[in-house]
Design brief:
Length: 258
């Protein structure tokens, strides 16, 4: 019988910054699988569920959670920043044991790299491999701010936020001044990115949100660690079709076997 999912709530932050983070963990062997969602996504998404199913089928530990302002976690979405979500990722990661394969989609890809960097600076080498799906590294600067129109830049200055229609749901995406300004403190493309572990990148060739050029830019900054980039010519941003999920599963299998 496969271990059941254990849901829990983790309080992160203190005082007015405290927020309850919804976590789901499945017990299993090492290396564990640690999943990081994309912007406005949650741990009930198709890729997150596929990662959990893979872990269950192969007896691996799996950890998933929702950022504050997302899914079942507390906190206000409009207060969300890279710093807050990274703090939450580190707090949840501390619940895990042994080597972990860290997987991140879109914004979660950036957070995966930031998480790994923070752990390495603290002397932890528990990240066995990074698997990044359409990684939106430096997204606040290169993919959000750089793409704003004059009207949107004026809205950001005067109203403190920008609204954009989403092709993934009825509610618009909201990008706040706080998110953009905080993102500047976490930029990674200003130098070499050292991971200390292998990196696998899955990138769609028809991704309108994180173009393939962005993935190539990331590769150009990973100078000292093994990198595998799989470009899926007809793939979109989500990469959640059955064939895309199989590629993700194959990447996990290779990381576990290495």
């Amino acid at each position: 019988m496969m271990p059941a999912i254990t849901p829990s709530t983790l309080e992160v932050g203190t005082g007015a910054n405290s927020r309850p983070i919804a976590v789901e963990r499945r017990a299993g062997a090492a290396p564990g699988l640690f999943w990081l969602n994309g912007f406005k996504s949650d741990m009930g998404g198709s890729k997150a569920i596929a990662v959990d199913a893979y872990g269950a089928a192969h007896g691996l530990a799996v950890t998933r959670f929702d950022y504050s302002g997302h899914g079942r976690s507390g906190g206000e979405f409009l207060q969300g920043t890279v710093s807050r979500w990274l703090e939450e990722a580190l707090a949840v990661f501390a619940l895990t044991e042994g080597p972990q394969i860290v997987l991140g989609s879109s914004l979660g890809g950036w957070l995966a790299l930031l998480l790994n960097r923070a752990l390495r600076r603290a002397g932890s080498g528990r990240v066995k491999e990074l698997i990044l799906v359409a990684p939106a590294v430096d997204a606040t600067q290169d993919l959000m701010l750089a793409g704003f129109s004059r009207k949107e830049l004026k809205s950001l200055e005067e109203r403190g936020y920008v609204e954009r229609a989403s092709q993934y749901g009825p509610e618009p995406y909201v990008y706040t001044r706080g998110l953009i300004e905080d993102g500047r403190t976490h930029l990674m493309f200003d130098g070499v990115i050292e991971t200390g572990c292998p990196v696998t990148i899955l990138q769609g060739g028809k991704d309108p949100d994180v173009p393939q050029e962005h993935a190539l830019k990331l590769v150009s900054h990973l100078l000292h660690d093994p990198v595998t980039l799989t470009l899926i010519p007809d793939g979109d941003h989500r990469l959640s079709r059955p064939e895309d999920i199989r590629r993700l599963e194959d990447a996990i299998g290779r990381a576990v076997a290495d």
